[in-house]
């Protein structure tokens, strides 16, 4: 049986407005200067704590606060629904399920992934949902992928494909030993995706549909 592991942000949905709003709210609460939209968009994909501590160099205490402020806005004020699902995505999932493919999610979102998928009418397509969870020490995509392999008792990694728009997705697939497909309609650029050496890089959902049916 073929398994497909999908990233969420930038692969299934365009969450730019809600995520940028969350970061702006967090930076304001921390007394940090506002940033241009282009710089904020580049923050979509990596784990929240990584953004605050590694990219912007906040202390451990302030990084934790930043994550909390972001979540207050994103989950508490409804920012998580301020997104759109890419055209053709639901039809893609249906076509894969019709061919008895098994679909999963691996996302750096920390909370309420099921509610977001339900909001867009696609929750029913996914067997496993793995997300960022510090309490369970799930801190990167490699761990999420490995958890899915374990849960599904998958021994043959050639039967698993990771689909994502950032190096965190494709690099994790490479590290774990999976084939990957990079999508350019999300938030990563061609150079970022190429260095992870995915099997395919696609421009749009229509191309993604075509290549996924080749596995």
Tally of distinct domains: 2
What's the helix count?
A: 10
For the biggest sheet, the summary is: 6 strands, parallel
- Pattern of helices and strands: EEHHHHEHEHEHEHEHEH
CATH architecture title of the largest domain: 3-Layer(aba) Sandwich
Uncertain parts: none
**What's the number of extended β-strand segments?**
8
Range of helix content: 40-55%
Could you tell me the radius of gyration in angstroms? 17 Å
CATH superfamily of the largest domain: HAD superfamily/HAD-like
Distance separating the two termini? 11 Å
Query: Which strands sit side by side, in order, in the main sheet?
Result: 5-4-1-6-7-8
The third-level CATH topology of the largest domain is Rossmann fold
Measured by DSSP, the beta-strand proportion falls in: 15-25%
CATH class type of the largest domain = Alpha Beta
Protein architecture, described:
- The protein is an alpha/beta fold and 215 residues long.
- The chain folds into two domains: 3-14 and 83-212, Rossmann fold (3-Layer(aba) Sandwich), CATH 3.40.50; 16-81, Putative phosphatase, domain 2 (DNA polymerase, domain 1).
- It contains ten helices and eight strands.
- The chain has helices at 16-29, 37-41, 48-55, 60-76, 89-98, 113-119, 141-151, 167-176, 190-194, 205-212; strands at 3-6, 13-14, 84-85, 102-107, 126-131, 160-164, 179-183, 200-202.
- The strands form two sheets. A six-stranded parallel β-sheet has the order 5-4-1-6-7-8, with helices on both faces.
- Helix 7 crosses helix 8 (167-176).
- It starts with a strand and ends with a helix.
- The model has no long low-confidence stretch (mean pLDDT 96).
């Amino acid at each position: 049986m073929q398994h497909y592991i999908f990233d969420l942000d930038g692969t299934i949905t365009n969450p730019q407005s809600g995520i940028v709003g969350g970061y702006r709210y967090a930076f304001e609460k921390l007394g940090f200067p506002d940033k241009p939209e282009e710089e904020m968009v580049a923050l979509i994909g990596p784990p929240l704590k990584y953004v605050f501590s590694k990219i912007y160099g906040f202390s451990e205490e302030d990084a934790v606060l930043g994550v909390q402020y972001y979540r207050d806005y994103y989950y508490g004020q409804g920012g998580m629904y301020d997104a759109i699902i890419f055209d053709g995505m639901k039809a893609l999932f249906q076509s894969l399920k019709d061919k008895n493919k098994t679909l999963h999610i691996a996302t750096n979102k920390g909370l309420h992934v099921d509610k977001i998928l339900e909001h867009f009418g696609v929750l029913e397509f996914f067997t496993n949902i793995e997300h960022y969870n510090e309490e369970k020490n799930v801190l990167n995509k490699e761990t999420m992928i490995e958890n899915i392999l374990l849960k599904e008792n998958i021994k043959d990694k050639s039967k698993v494909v990771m689909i994502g728009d950032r190096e965190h997705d494709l690099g994790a697939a490479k590290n774990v030993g999976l084939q990957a497909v990079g999508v350019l309609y999300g938030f990563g650029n061609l150079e970022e995706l190429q260095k992870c050496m995915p099997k395919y890089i696609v421009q749009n959902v229509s191309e993604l549909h075509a290549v996924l049916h080749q596995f």
